[in-house]
Design brief:
Blueprint: E1 2-8, H1 16-23, H2 26-36, H3 41-49, E2 55-61, E3 91-95, H4 101-113, E4 117-121, H5 123-127, H6 129-132, E5 138-141, H7 147-159, E6 169-171, E7 199-201, E8 204-205, H8 216-219, E9 225-226, H9 229-240, E10 248-250, H10 259-269, E11 276-280, H11 288-296, E12 299-307, H12 311-314, H13 323-326, H14 331-339, E13 344-349, H15 360-370
Parallel strand pairs: 1-2, 1-3, 3-4, 4-5, 5-6, 7-10, 10-11, 11-12, 12-13
Antiparallel strand pairs: 8-9
């Protein structure tokens, strides 16, 4: 079969008030360009787990005004913007967040009307699979490295004249759990020749903290799982065959939970000579040796969820051990320790928590100016 993998990329907003408040500001546009330039690691893993014998292609859709983002010779439908090659596929998998889901559904509807079978997955579909099944033939809920190859085999049998696929909902919980220690190398070769400014590599899945706003457990199991460090190095070396000096974004929720494992990861990254970025919690600043290894391994920035400049708003936010509130008093000093290693800190905040008032915008700005 010919299989198309379609990533919905870029930022979206469907609320006119949000648009008026600044979604067109230069900083937001710049961030949108960064988001749009990240390939979908989830789809690259699906490509790697696709059974042999199929022709797999990777495409992106960032909106009709931005072009299709697919192969360099791809032709876009003049009305919709998705790559025309999708309509030649036997099966198309679409991965989407909530912000792009209306466009994803419209594309799925057009593909199915043209006789193409459509599977949908991602965060939104994992929360609303019944809604997705109004537009897709199949919905994949949760991690898909175990469900996807089984679905492909079933569709291939039907495509070859066998029985129709009677299962429409494919839940990860109905199949063996994904063993991150046995993940294959993502199909980075599908990205060759494309103008990405960074590439994603995963070192771990999940997070031990249970912040009530976080979507991590929607897609992932509740256990924090680390990949073998040698496999991470293997993946980066595979990527470097297609991009000599890639900038790596570690696609993790919280990379340095295990400090000793994190140190070994940094040691393995040092000889690779790649610049990189990741997400982690504020406890990364507790270990001086780890901070030094971050610098030596060419870590350029860490994203840390600070969430609020006031402690009262953090109480009870993290459901497991109230971690965010407990660390609030030391957050500023921790940020400075990271910065002393020449590593910038991308501090993230949640606006609109229960204890927040209209002054929260100024409070966040004050915090940012105190810890530049």
């Amino acid at each position: 079969m010919k299989i198309g993998l379609l990533a919905m990329s870029g930022l979206r907003a469907h609320d006119p008030d949000l648009l008026a408040l600044g979604l067109t500001l230069p900083g937001v546009i710049q961030r949108g360009e960064v988001v749009a330039s990240l390939p979908s690691l989830g789809l690259l893993y699906l490509a790697a787990t696709t059974p042999d014998g199929h022709d797999v292609r990777y495409y992106e859709y960032s909106g009709p005004e931005n072009g299709n983002g697919g192969d360099s010779d791809a032709k876009s439908d003049a009305t919709s913007g998705e790559p025309a090659e999708l309509y030649d596929c036997d099966l198309v998998a679409i991965s989407t967040f909530s912000a792009q889901v209306f466009e994803a559904y419209a594309i799925a509807d057009r593909l199915r009307a043209a006789g193409v079978r459509v599977a949908m997955g991602g965060l939104h579909v994992s929360v609303e699979p019944d809604e997705a099944l109004e537009h897709a033939d199949y919905a994949l809920v949760g991690e898909a490295e175990e469900t996807w190859p089984r679905l492909v085999d079933a569709v291939a049998r039907q495509h070859g004249g066998g029985e129709a696929v009677d299962r429409r909902l494919w839940r990860a919980s109905d199949f063996p759990p994904v063993d991150v220690r046995a993940l294959p190398v993502p199909r980075y070769d599908l990205l060759a020749g494309r103008a990405y400014n960074r590439f994603t590599v995963q070192t771990s899945r999940g997070c031990p903290w249970r912040c009530d706003f976080c979507a991590s457990t929607v897609m992932l199991s509740k256990t924090y799982r680390k990949r073998p460090v040698e496999h991470i190095r293997r993946d980066i070396e595979a990527l470097k065959r297609f991009r000599k000096r890639p900038f790596i974004e570690l696609a993790d929720d919280n990379t340095f939970v295990d400090k000793e494992w994190g140190k070994e990861l940094c040691r393995q990254l040092i000889p690779l000579g790649v610049n990189w970025f990741t997400e982690t919690d504020i406890s990364v600043a507790d270990d001086e040796e780890l901070l030094r290894l971050l610098r030596r391994s060419r870590c350029r920035q860490v994203l840390v969820g600070l969430e609020s400049p006031e402690q009262a708003s953090l109480e009870g936010m993290e459901l497991h051990a109230n971690f965010k509130a407990r660390r609030w008093a030391t957050a500023k000093e921790a940020v400075r320790r990271i910065q002393e290693q020449g590593i910038t800190v991308n501090g993230c905040f949640i606006l609109g928590l229960d204890a927040h008032g209209p002054d929260i915008f100024e409070r966040v700005l004050e915090f940012a100016l105190e810890v530049p």
